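Running log. JK asked me to keep both predictions on one page so they can be read side by side. First protein, sequence followed by its tokens:
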Amino acid sequence: MTMFADDTRDVSASRSHLDRLEAEAISIIREVTAGVDSPVLLFSGGKDSAVLLWLAVRAFRPARVPFPVMHVDTGHNFDEVIAYRDALVSEFGLELVVASVQKSIDDGRIADPGPTGSRNRQQAVTLLDAIKEHKFDAAFGGGRRDEDKARAKERILSFRDRTGAWEPRAQRPEPWNVLNPRIAKGEHLRAFPLSNWTELDVWEYIEREQVPLPSIYFSHRREVVHRGGMLLAIGGPVVAEVGEKVSVETVRYRTVGDMSCTGAVRSDATTHREIIDEVAASRITERGATRADDQFSESAMEDRKREGYF
């Protein structure tokens, strides 16, 4: 999983679209880090946060990443993702902060949705509590504008008030990509260096840089159940209900989230190039196709973001 083993570049591609996106993202990471007191990088173990972490390592090497990595743990994670997270933290000597949704439930901070219920929405409270506890004033996230219409409303720097709430009509202008990370006491900001990337950009960058990912992003055989138009993996919070049939399918995941609401897609793609071809042909975003929490209503993502979600 070693990164940057060979950093040689093709000179003919030095001004490519990916290079420009990379340079913009690194500039954002450096500028925000210099302008705040205590940043943190939100890390889910998904492809976008993997690319974000890769860019942070590149932004500061040969020095270590000068801020912690935080995972908001729902307790309903894929085993492969947790193993990947721990291997990455060990490989690069990162400081890992784990904010536990289960602890928030045990402390009475949020309601327990039950053993099979989605904990995705509950993450907002856990995240805001962790930001307050550790006195973080900026959180880097891997959100992209092409994921969802609510995320398309985000500026690169998204400001949150003293309660952690997001008001899309009160965001600061960013003319000519000039960023202003100054915040008032008690407030914090979310910074999205991948705002201008697309899912296809992310996968092409992963292929070019050989960014390591959890194995579930590539085709494999898995026990699944058909529910709500999605293929949910059997295990953890997902158990077959009366009348449901469990089958073994060849699948992969386009996005990583709570097992109870993240669906797989049928796919034989085992290489970066095969996945890139799939993504290029798709007309549905990864969240729109595989996340039950986003299909609940047209405003589902925006409602969660207003409450403090990523």
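And the second, directly underneath as requested:
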Amino acid sequence: MSQESSITPEELNLLIEQTYKVENEFNELKSSYDHLQDTVEKVVEFLPNAIWILNDDGILLQNSQAKALGKLVELLEYKDTEYELKFNSNSYLIKSSTYKENIMLSATDITEQKRKENLATMGQMAAHLSHEIRNPIGSISLLSSTLKKRVIPKNVAIVEEIQKSVCRIERIVKATLMFSKGVEATMNPFMWSDLKEELNHAVGHYGFTKDISFIFPEKNFELNADKDLLEMLFSNFLTNAIDAIELDDNEDGLVEMSYDEVEGFHRFCIFDSGVDIENAKELFEAFKSTKVKGNGLGLVLSRQIAESHNGSVDLLAGQRKGFEIKIAI
């Protein structure tokens, strides 16, 4: 071996040291890269919307929200502007961007936002229509009262049916306007017996064909609340109960209201013997009604009225169909 090709021990040690140094730098670089990739994955996972990062081979990275949406990614396309897409009854806002050879897509669930926008639009339209209906309904109510005094006795029942129909429309108009403006309670003390009298009067003006018995709490007690609002709240439940009994096969029915005091609340429970509730999930959805004759605002307003009195309205679980209404004492 020639002297020129020989490596000295010093040179060999230096080469070994350089090899270790390169290996350490590579390991540090790899650790930094793994840490960066892990950070990116955590950031992507932390985002509230579904994220996909695609390359020519398919999905490079996706978060759990994206995985939960399954085949939605197959419907997505790259566009210069954001767009909306319907998938499995939900609405999504789609955004896209590119970086080098990769495409990033995001899908944000805007179903609730769209629902609120539609609800606000429907509320505005309903409030406008209610204002337009109010004047002619007032005229019909006044004229029917005059007509009732002048018709022959056998036609009085017809006029009374007209008055009951007008009363129903007035209730719908009042509920719609209240929903559009919001519920504000004005508290004043009054006795339950006064409110019970108003409820008996309201039931008497609501048309029904079955033989229905009504049981109200006999105990008299004081409430510090908005009497008009509570009259609307309880009337909503009573008329719903009447409608449910009207749809039942039996020729008679029962509406029962119980009362007790529980932990600082006036607690009322209203039961009826009518048909069961078909879709309990939609009970408190505005403009969605489980009844043929419903406008979808009665129970929504009832809950808002109870909440304005620091109370609540809930569907009771059990063998008897009923609702629990709590009003703060």
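Observation for JK regarding the second prediction: The chain is about 45% helix and 25% strand.
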